[in-house]
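Below is one record:
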Amino acid sequence: MNINWTTSEESNVDHFVLQRQIDAEQDWTNAAIISAGRTSDATKQYAYTERNVTGKRASFRLVSVDRDNVKTIHPSTSISMSCQPNVLRIFPTATYGSVQVNLPHSLSEQKFSLHDMSGRKHPVRVTHSTGAATIDVSSLPLGTYLLSIASMPGNAPVKVVKLPAH
């Protein structure tokens, strides 16, 4: 997700802190610190690429910090995030319990296969729900596996690492 902002002028600004809040349940956390132009009458453009957004709704806000460490909190902007209907998402890929697969709407009830690195197929327990499937890997031996979706033979399998339980 790209986050952009523009300043028309800057006076004594040292840097900006971009903060995020996920699903309005967490405290604000710092996503990035971006150096500012300090003092400028010219329009300046800033950009940041956010790669760590999870959840259904994210809010972002800027905090400008001047050279005297005086902070100004600017109004927040909320962004609704929904699983895009034609995007396949598989997470986490390193787990001790289960793997969540968000499926495009056209691929609701899928068959999955799991192979270890020597090519042996392992049985998987899959729980289907609307637009998603949960694959239980808790009973598998530790190791690296390749997860494939039966109706998507053109897609490369996804590497899943079974970790030790806590």
